[in-house]
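Supplementary Text 2. Reproducibility record for the structural model of the 253-residue chain.

All settings were left at their defaults, and a single model was retained for analysis rather than an ensemble. We include the record here because the model underlies the residue-level annotations in Supplementary Table 4.
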Amino acid sequence: MPTALAISPHLDDAAFSCGGTLATLAAAGWRVVMATVFTASVADPEGFALACQTDKGLGPEVDYMALRRSEDEAAAAALGLAPPRHLGFREAPHRGYGSAPELFADLRPDDAVVGDLVRAFRDLVDEVEPDLLLAPQGVGGHVDHIQVILALRALTLDRPVLWWRDFPYTVRCADPKEPLRESFAGLAPFAMSLTPAATAAKRAACAAYESQLGFQFGGVGGLHDRLAQEGAMENFRRSGILPQRFPRHDVGV
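Retained model, structure tokens:
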């Protein structure tokens, strides 16, 4: 059985950006492992870290990340996947980033998480033995996404990777920030055309992240409107040759 491993920075990124492709692979008989990186609960958050949950209507008594992990599990089920892996790293607001603009600016010089990510990803790849990896391009420039990419590149991967275009940053403006654009420009573009079944599975999976919908999209209707802007397509840059058993609902190989 071929295996795909999707490495999602946050508890929604993989479903938002390549959920239709993951559902397509699962329906075609692939083992699909969705691993989310920044998932750790932090007791008694303060300052900007606390604001990241209160601005979504969740009081300080709520274990925000536990709630989000449960949403991630529901999303995986909607895609037809086994329960996701949660790697337990702390999100950027718990690593010293103190405001929303800082999340999309330069990496902090004291943010040394990438070394730990390299070790965790190496162990994960060795365990899962994927035939295909899926990972972000860093569209939008979120520091957590960038650290994931830097760690994956440090592994010198010996298997194909589909690097996804990070939604919803792809639809928020015509020319989103892409700090790593040039480094991906030499890779082959690849687009996955989603069947109605894969589109429906992706919509259901994305809607499972209920804590995020009001803040990011104004509700589930706004989410569906934003997803519709993608035109039932998921876009990637491809490194390596895709496995022969990759489902051929694709264009631009």
